[in-house]
């Protein structure tokens, strides 16, 4: 690639980023104010990994990376739970006897935290909703559905096409990835400091 082509490609990329910044600025400000401004300066102690995931989830939300917001919100909460169990396990605890803390699923971590009274049943329901209703559809998509109509397979509703519809047509009949991301980030912001206080 010649230096003149590189310069023109760099200028083109710079222009694209500037235009995106101009069009997305209001949305980013709204997202920051909507769910994050009230706790933005709050300090709390977390494991380095959990804290990193927490910050990345917040920046995904601000940037408008909605699916990433959902996934990172779940990962941050899961790591906060896992870190708690790593630091507080005894050899005869049920989680240690049945499965290692590192090998426990998010569901197992939530259930164990509730069983120990670390989180309430209400918080456990919220975390299970994050796991099942917000995260799982994006990470466990299915490419096919059972149907008897073999004449038009491209019309079959699949979880993959439903999720794509949420992303490409937010607010239409399939729901909205924006609303799901907002719910996930709000749950993260409400839950994360609480999980670290116990």
**Tally of helical segments:** 8
* Number of discrete domains: 2
Largest sheet: none
Low-confidence stretches: 147-156
Which structural class do the helices and strands define? mainly alpha
Global mean pLDDT? 78
Radius of gyration: 21 Å
Shape estimate:
elongated
Q: Distance between the terminal alpha carbons, to the nearest Å?
A: 57 Å
Strand residue content: under 5%
The CATH architecture of the largest domain is Up-down Bundle
Number of strands: 0
Order of helices and strands: HHHHHHHH
What is the CATH C level class of the largest domain, in words? Mainly Alpha
Kindly list the characteristics that best describe this protein.
0% strand; mainly alpha; 198 residues; Four Helix Bundle (Hemerythrin (Met), subunit A)
Written account of the structure:
- There is one protein chain.
- With 198 residues, this protein is mostly helical.
- It folds into 2 domains: 37 residues; 139 residues, Four Helix Bundle (Hemerythrin (Met), subunit A) (Up-down Bundle), CATH 1.20.120.
- It contains 8 helices and no strands.
The gist of it:
The chain is 69% helix and 0% strand. With 198 residues, it is mostly helical. Helix 3 crosses helix 5, helix 3 runs parallel beside helix 8 and helix 6 crosses helix 8.
Q: How are the secondary structure elements laid out?
A:
Layout: H1 3-35, H2 48-63, H3 66-88, H4 94-98, H5 106-115, H6 121-139, H7 159-168, H8 177-197
Helix pairs in contact: 2-3, 2-8, 3-5, 3-6, 3-8, 5-6, 6-8
């Amino acid at each position: 690639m010649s230096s003149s082509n590189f310069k023109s490609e760099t200028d083109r990329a710079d222009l694209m980023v500037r235009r995106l910044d101009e069009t997305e600025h209001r949305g980013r400000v709204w997202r920051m104010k909507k769910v994050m401004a009230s706790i933005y300066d709050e300090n709390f102690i977390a494991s380095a990994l959990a804290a990193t995931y927490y910050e990345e989830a917040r920046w995904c939300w601000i940037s408008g990376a909605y699916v990433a917001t959902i996934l990172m919100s779940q990962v941050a909460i899961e790591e906060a739970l896992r870190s708690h169990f790593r630091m507080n396990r005894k050899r005869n605890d049920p989680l240690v006897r049945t499965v290692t803390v590192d090998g426990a699923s998010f569901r197992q971590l939530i259930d164990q935290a509730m069983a120990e009274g670390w989180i309430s049943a209400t918080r456990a329901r919220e975390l299970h909703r994050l796991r099942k209703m917000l995260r799982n559809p994006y990470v466990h998509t299915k490419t096919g559905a059972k149907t008897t109509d073999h004449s038009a397979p491209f019309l079959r509703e699949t979880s993959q096409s439903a999720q794509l519809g949420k992303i490409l047509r937010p607010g239409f009949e399939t729901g909205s990835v924006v609303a799901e991301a907002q719910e996930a980030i709000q749950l993260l912001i409400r839950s994360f400091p609480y999980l670290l206080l116990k």
